[in-house]
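Below is how a single chain appears once it has passed through the pipeline. First comes the sequence as given, then the structure the pipeline wrote out for it. We keep one example in the README because the format questions we get most often are answered faster by looking than by reading.
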Amino acid sequence: MKWAITLIGLLTLPLLFNLAPLEVMRLKTFDALVTTPEPTGYFSILNIDEQFLDDQGGYPLPRETLAKIHKDIIDAGALGVGWVMLFPHPDRMGGDDEFSIQLANSPSVIAMPEISNGLYPPTVGTVIKGPIVSLPKAQGFLQNIDVLKESANQGAISAPVDVDNLVRRIPLLQQTNNGWVASFGTEVLKILGGGRTYQIVTNLNGIEQVRVRGIPPIATDSLGRKWISWVDTPQTDLAEMDVENKFVFVGFTAKGIMPQIAVPNNKLLEPHKIQAALAESILIQDSPYIPDWSLAAELLILVITVTFVWLCINIFGMTTGITLTSLLFFSTIFFGHWFIQRGILIDVTWTLISQFITGSTAFYLRFREQYKLRQQIKKQFGKYLDPRMVKKLQDNPELCKVNGNRVDCSIIFTDLRGFTS
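Resulting structure:
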């Protein structure tokens, strides 16, 4: 039992300290098992490609050209436009007023990245339902020029990476020194739903849900991050302009203009495609999320199953114990897969490894114990009993009783002819 307690204690440490290799393994497991849902049908991605830039004389595009693109998108029946681009400086060609007029004529969102400048946009209205939480605060934002941000909503395009430098989770709201700033995708859904505020549901661990008018509550992790479903949102270009009844995310796909960001499954995506995926994920019902109780669940599953493995091998013997352990191993795989398929990201990978380590250790200790016992029986009885009887005792050590057994028996003594000589 001392071995069991020590081993279980050691196996829980990687979970408690969330070691980097374990976190990478957990995330890769989620990447492999999370299903990709179908697009919601509310969004479209419009790519400004190299051919269009060549036709327009190169990058950057005049704001008057952007104004015309915006008007063409709305005239084609779009619900609104999200420009996942930065406009921190005035247009040298004087097209800002025309662009701002077009932005004001329809639901519009423009991007602002997080940088360490200590400057924040005016906070949006938020209602906290639950304990007051304190999260890592944004260091500042690079905002757009006044004439544009007064005509459109601004949304943060922060895309923090996980331990393996891939983007999987994006905060729906970021806390600042004086309030909260919404992500680009969250801001899009707020203006489409006609809302003015956000509601943040909290618990003792942090954020639990974010609520936006017109859509169901959005489950997040304790830091307010949404797990992204990398939906294949329909894409179009300026020639095709297939945007009717959709909100359009506009961005550059021409090489060398926008950074390409690494996401799971060996993909590189431009910022506007990532924000479109965020908006899609928010609207998808039962989309994946890591609950704030995931660590407690993973620890509980590990302790219970590993203890069961140890007891099976030590109580039922090797053959039965290994059979029961194998059944438990495959049952753990089944339930782990079942949870992930239903959007609850609970990882059992380390539990499976721990079961194997525990089973191997218990098997070795039991084998060593049996081996020593067999050697002891051979040493004690090998000189006095028939080898067949010694083997019987080795195979069934429980027959070796200190006080023996009282039985009724008949004994015959015989002589062998010629034995004396």
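The first strand starts at residue 43 and ends at 48.

See the next section for the split statistics.
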